[in-house]
Amino acid sequence: MARETEKKGMAWFKNARSNQNQPEKSSAEHQEIAVTVEEEPAYSAEPELPAAENSKQLFSKDNQDKIGLDVIVSIENMLKERQLLSYKNKGLEDQLFTANETINRYKHEQIKRDQLVQEKNKEIRELENVLTNKQMSYDQLLEDYKEYQLTSNLAYEKLSNQLETETAKYNKLYEESNNTQYQSMLKINALEEKVRELEIANQKYAEQYQNILDDKAKLMQTINDFTEKMSFSFSPKTSAPNTPSE
């Protein structure tokens, strides 16, 4: 009976060690295994009462040899370690759940950020299009301004040349006008001098004419006086022979 109990304990110990060396499963499976291990004596106790008594005697520390005590202590340590591993797995599961929630939150935020980045990229493309259109408009305006500046420079040079030509003509005409005015002034002065000389000569001629008229009037008066005298002288002789006939 002791050998059978020792064989069962050793077999159970080997199974427990093999289960401990296997990869860790989820906490629910560990708890289920622990419950199964803990319930094995109860399950074995259901068919018959002597088996329950044998199991109690098997796991009882009383009346056990060193190997049995070591096996029982090892089993208890393994159960405690399993329970500790279950707690650790529970904590790890909680951390994993929190990490998954954080990851999901980060993924959701990443999606929002990606959407925001897409919207910003769309806005940037629109702004680039607007900037490109403005740059094209600016280039066109710059080209038009250069063309206008060239045309304006040509027109300015043409007007400058015309102005210089007209200025030269004006200066020439002004010089000729000054010369003409000077010559006219000289002619006017000469004519005025000539008019004054003619007035003086005319005045002399008028005086001479007046003297001639006066002399003529005197001569006529003298002639008239002489005629009257002569008429008076010849009148008696003429009238004497006529008187008797009357």
Write up this protein.
This protein is mostly helical and 246 residues long. Mean pLDDT is 76; it is low at 19-55 and 242-246. The chain is built from five helices and no strands. Helix 2 packs across helix 3.
Give a summary of the structure in a few sentences.
With 246 residues, the protein is mostly helical. The chain has helices at 2-21, 27-45, 49-59, 66-239, 242-245.
Helical stretch count? Answer: 5
Q: What is the helix fraction of residues, given as a range?
A: over 70%
> How much strand?
under 5%
Structural class: mainly alpha
> How would you describe the shape?
rod-shaped
Could you list the spans in which at least 5 consecutive residues all have pLDDT below 50? 19-55, 242-246
- pLDDT averaged over residues: 76
Biggest sheet record: none
Task: Please trace the helix and strand order, writing H or E for each element.
Answer: HHHHH
Coiled coil: 75-215
Keywords: Coiled coil
Biased composition (Polar residues): 16-25
Region (Disordered): 1-31
Secondary structure blueprint with pairings:
Elements: H1 2-21, H2 27-45, H3 49-59, H4 66-239, H5 242-245
Helix pairs in contact: 1-4, 2-3, 2-4
